[in-house]
Amino acid sequence: MINLNKKSYNYKESFSRYEFKYILSKSLSDRIEDEVKNFMKYDDFIHRELENRYFVRSLYFDNKFFSNFYEKVDGMKIRKKYRLRTYGEIFDSKVPIFLEVKGRYQERSYKNRTIINHKDLDLFLDHSSYFILLKKYPNNKIVRDFVFDSLKKKLIPSVLVDYKRRPYINKFGLYFRLTFDSNITCANTKSLFPNPSSSHKLKCKPGYTILELKFDRSISVWFHKIIQSYNLRRKSVSKFVLGVTGCNLAKETSE
Length: 255
Known about the structure:
Layout: E1 12-25, H1 26-36, E2 40-42, E3 54-62, H2 67-73, E4 78-86, E5 97-105, E6 108-116, H3 130-136, H4 141-153, E7 156-170, E8 176-187, E9 202-203, E10 208-215, H5 221-229, H6 239-246
């Protein structure tokens, strides 16, 4: 866990990688995970009390036309979206909150993120406060781009998505990461920590697990064998899209 001292609010991370996704039934997910354990280990952020998983919460931004949603649905090769991400269901000053920009450039996905001060959370949810953000984060490109894009595209908090993630990383060799995401829920809210009594959670893909494969250069040989053995087929699935459709905020269109 990141130590949230004063200097940590300048903390930034950047990732660029390939991402493949698969939708698995519970039984298939269990069988694949049993094989994965022979080659990979849990990452350091799991919680034993959550069955070796951790909780993930994302508040996604979009405009009233859901432009980001349709860019994803239409398969645009160059796109991006913003979200606030944290790892707890209630406000906790010890659990970091990140502003993230998640995007795609041609075949690779990227994610840039920066920690925000918990005291500034409400400033990210209100356009009238954005000039304050620019003063508080003067040298932070992620915050600056978020402010400019939000004002230009009229982005607002649109949908909250929660899930539990069991993550695996390579024991040796190149970067190779697998995550098994389940118990996905969504809520139509503009708050990162909504009042449970006023925010109804809806289930997304109940009974299914989303397997995400993340790598820099190539897929491990042993996982290629799993793909062939179980006849896995990549899916263009997005928890953001699942959340928007699950809350009936927008619909996927087809010819």
